[in-house]
Amino acid sequence: MTAETSQTLDRGLRVLKLLADTDHGLTVTELSTKLGVNRTVVYRLLATLEQHALVRRDIGGRARVGLGVLQLGRQVHPLVREAALPALRALAEDIGATAHLTLVDGTEALAVAVVEPTWTDYHVAYRPGFRHPLDRGAAGRAILAARAGNPDDPGYALTHGELEAGASGAAAPLLGVTGIEGSVGVVMLTDAVPEQVGPRVLEAAREVSEALR
């Protein structure tokens, strides 16, 4: 800790990181042990974070991440979208299909950026803000596959007709981006995804991942 940094802020951020890494929350005692500070300090940190809805405590007294963190996360979407647009534009033009960046929002996949090709006679209409379950559609399935970490996974997911009749999708997950879970993909009106699309989507996902690091 240098003279230019705030010890209290540092501890508060560490609390949020610890809570984000657990599904069942942490008690004051557990946080005190992990942070190496006394319980009084933890109580003060939690009280401050609760005032900003960044932390909540359940009936049993376990602290969990609060809904305020989700609100902060939504403010990041415009920045992520801007960083992803060049790769999405190139992908849409190369494939001749609608390209999209999708992020995890709770238990759903949320499209935050969409680019349509300029030279095709027709393409699938896909809009930012579109949501769907993570286990349906290529975008969500690519994210779930990345979570599973299967070594035999080709690195991208292919689907047909799961979100829209007659439409096929291909998507690859964002990898190595701290704090962001998502995928890059395309959706097209075909019975099957052409062979070259999967690897091209994988390349675009790598480009977006690099832009976000």
From TrEMBL:
Keywords: DNA-binding, Transcription, Transcription regulation. One of its GO terms (molecular function) is DNA-binding transcription factor activity. Residues 6-67 form the HTH iclR-type domain. Residues 68-213 form the IclR-ED domain. GO terms for biological process: negative regulation of DNA-templated transcription. InterPro entries: ArsR-like_HTH, GAF-like_dom_sf, HTH_MetabolicPath_Reg, Tscrpt_reg_IclR_C, Tscrpt_reg_IclR_N, WH-like_DNA-bd_sf, WH_DNA-bd_sf. PANTHER family: HELIX-TURN-HELIX TRANSCRIPTIONAL REGULATOR, ICLR FAMILY (PTHR30136), HTH-TYPE TRANSCRIPTIONAL REPRESSOR ALLR (PTHR30136:SF24). This is HTH domain-containing protein. It comes from Streptomyces palmae.
